[in-house]
Fold this sequence. Notes:
Elements: H1 2-27, E1 37-43, H2 51-54, H3 60-73, E2 78-87, E3 91-92, H4 93-101, E4 104-107, H5 118-128, E5 131-138, E6 142-149, E7 161-169, E8 172-180, H6 185-199, E9 204-209, E10 228-230, H7 231-235, E11 260-265, H8 270-273, E12 274-280, E13 285-286, E14 292-293, E15 300-305, E16 318-319
Parallel strand pairs: 1-2, 8-9
Antiparallel strand pairs: 1-15, 2-3, 2-5, 4-5, 6-7, 6-16, 7-8, 9-11, 10-11, 12-15, 13-14
Helix pairs in contact: 3-4
Amino acid sequence: xxxxxxxxxxxxxxxxxxxxxxxxxxxxxxxxxxxxxxxxxxxxxxxxxxxxxxxxxxxxxxxxxxxxxxxxxxxxxxxxxxxxxxxxxxxxxxxxxxxxxxxxxxxxxxxxxxxxxxxxxxxxxxxxxxxxxxxxxxxxxxxxxxxxxxxxxxxxxxxxxxxxxxxxxxxxxxxxxxxxxxxxxxxxxxxxxxxxxxxxxxxxxxxxxxxxxxxxxxxxxxxxxxxxxxxxxxxxxxxxxxxxxxxxxxxxxxxxxxxxxxxxxxxxxxxxxxxxxxxxxxxxxxxxxxxxxxxxxxxxxxxxxxxxxxxxxxxxxxxxxx
Length: 322
């Protein structure tokens, strides 16, 4: 009788455990998917606006091999790319990176958005056999995306854009943005305003080459007071974290400025979210001819972050990602 009683109690407890797991999965899916997301930002170096005409892309094919190997080594989930490029010879580098990783991607050509006329800009791009801009590459589905023109801020022939996408992660929807600015405060203020309008109550990852040092007036709006958590600086208080400019064929490191950033916007405490962050893609390779080659003129920034999202986002313009 005693054995039967305890067997019955054990069965009831086992049933309750299974039922509670189902309830948690339905009500709090992020609890069951709390593994950190591995993210990175990287300026790929396209080789110059005339590289489609001259064919000199600064050894892009070898550099792409190096980049893919590092992305795979770090098991990345979401990547913000700057200077992703496209030409008839090189193809679309964002698409090629995504294909090599088996990921989704979106890409926003920016280089010839000069005349604000789609047909004229497309013709100039075709004539130059080149375009470039930011991209987002993701292991998780990209459900929507949108491209925002940034103000020229007096640089009439220097078009810049912000690419924003909704990514469906295991922890819920996340707004992901990639941009390459000219380092002007008026552009950065516009970036902040766009993200504030779009984000709703979900977390965001903001990645890019901002062409400005962290303590400069141009970066004054990307602070904790404005909701931005600098992933690298959160975990590396006293390291310089230089990301540019690396001479692609130099024998030694030449980077001396920190202008590439990975920001997290969230309601949670920063120390609970940013597990690790470091500079990566900061080592060269020796080519068969003995020449030294670096992955880019920039280093990348890597971070492991925990993002829990139960909120909603104002869905951006285009749907059904690539």
